[in-house]
Design brief:
This protein is mainly β. The chain folds into two domains: 72 residues, no CATH class; 91 residues, Jelly Rolls (Sandwich). The protein has no helices and 15 strands. A hairpin with a 7-residue loop joins β3 and β4.
Length: 173
C-alpha cells in the first residue's frame, strides 16, 4: 500500500506520494472512452499513458485534439533537413568556427587536431582560461536540439600543431 502526503497549496489540496513510495494510479472514465486524460485547463490537450509491449516504464504521450504531438512551447518543430559541413584549421589564435545562424537546429564539431580546442559562445575571443567548453583531441561535441545556440562559436587550440582542426557540421531547416 502506498503512503500519501496531503499538502495545502493556496486554495488547493495537493496529494502526492511520500518520497521513495510508488503510487499506482487507475483512471476510470477517461475522455470519450479512448483512455486519454483531458487537461483540466485546456481541453485541447490530451495525455495518453501507453505501455509499449508491456515494458516499463510507461510513456505519457501528449497530443492536441488533432492527435499531433504537443510540447509546452506549442507545435513540434520538424527535424533538420540540411547538413552543411565546413573545416577550420587548428590555430593558437582565436578563430571563428561557425557564424551566427538563426536557422540552426543543431551542430556537431569534431576536433581532429592533436591539441585541445577551447570553444566560446559569442563574438568574444575565447582563451585557454576563458571559454565555454573544451573538445579534446580526437573527440566530438554535439549541440542538441533542446539547447541550440544560434550565435557565433569561436575556438582556440592550446597550441598550433598544424595537424588538423575542427570539422563542423551545422543542421538547418
Amino acid at each position: 500500500m502506498s503512503k500519501l502526503a496531503f499538502e495545502k497549496n493556496g486554495t488547493h489540496q495537493i496529494v502526492r506520494p511520500v518520497a521513495g513510495e510508488a503510487m499506482p494510479v487507475e483512471f476510470i472514465g477517461a475522455a470519450s472512452g479512448d483512455g486519454a486524460l483531458i487537461d483540466g485547463v485546456t481541453a485541447a490537450i490530451r495525455a495518453t499513458v501507453r505501455d509499449y509491449l508491456n515494458s516499463n516504464p510507461l510513456a505519457v504521450v501528449l497530443t492536441d485534439t488533432a492527435g499531433d504531438p504537443y510540447v509546452a512551447s506549442g507545435a513540434v518543430s520538424s527535424p533538420p533537413a540540411t547538413a552543411t559541413r565546413s573545416s577550420v584549421n587548428d590555430s593558437a589564435t582565436a578563430v571563428s568556427l561557425i557564424a551566427s545562424n538563426a536557422a540552426r537546429k543543431g551542430l556537431v564539431i569534431t576536433n581532429d587536431s592533436s591539441a585541445r580546442v577551447f570553444v566560446g559562445y559569442g563574438t568574444v575571443d575565447p582563451t585557454t582560461t576563458d571559454y565555454t567548453f573544451v573538445i579534446y583531441a580526437g573527440q566530438t561535441w554535439e549541440m542538441t536540439p533542446s539547447n541550440v545556440f544560434a550565435g557565433q562559436l569561436k575556438g582556440i587550440w592550446e597550441s598550433d600543431p598544424g595537424d588538423g582542426g575542427a570539422r563542423v557540421t551545422e543542421f538547418t531547416a
